[in-house]
Structures are given as C-alpha cells and as structure tokens.
Amino acid sequence: MNTANGNIRILIDSNEVSRRFGLKKTYLRDLRHQNRIPYIKIGRLVRYDPVELEQWLRSGQSAVTKKESTS
Length: 71
Known about the structure:
Elements: H1 14-21, H2 25-33, E1 40-42, E2 45-47, H3 50-59, E3 66-68
C-alpha cells in the first residue's frame, strides 16, 4: 500500500494485530464482521494498516472497509 508521499506502508495480519494491540482474534473477527475496525481485503486475505488501527483506537469510532483489487 502506497501513501500519499510515496512511502510503502507495511500491512499486518490478524495474528500481529492481536499481539500488538492485545485483542483476541475472535473479537477482532467480530469487529471486522460488524465493520467497526479498519481492514483491507486482498482477495481472501485480510490485512490491517497499523497506522489506521492506531488512529481508530484513539478515535473510538467505527471504520470504513477498503478492498484492494487483486489484478
């Protein structure tokens, strides 16, 4: 994922989100199914932008989901 300034942002998976933020993977899945957490779907893979997660945690708001094209 490229940022506006051209830097590449590293995406993390559910295991890493769980480890970094102390969220259970089942709770993370529930948040995702309720569209309450920002995530990116790439084909069948689910990934998270750690910067967006930090902002989401600070704001305490629901999030809009992004879907990356696989082509």
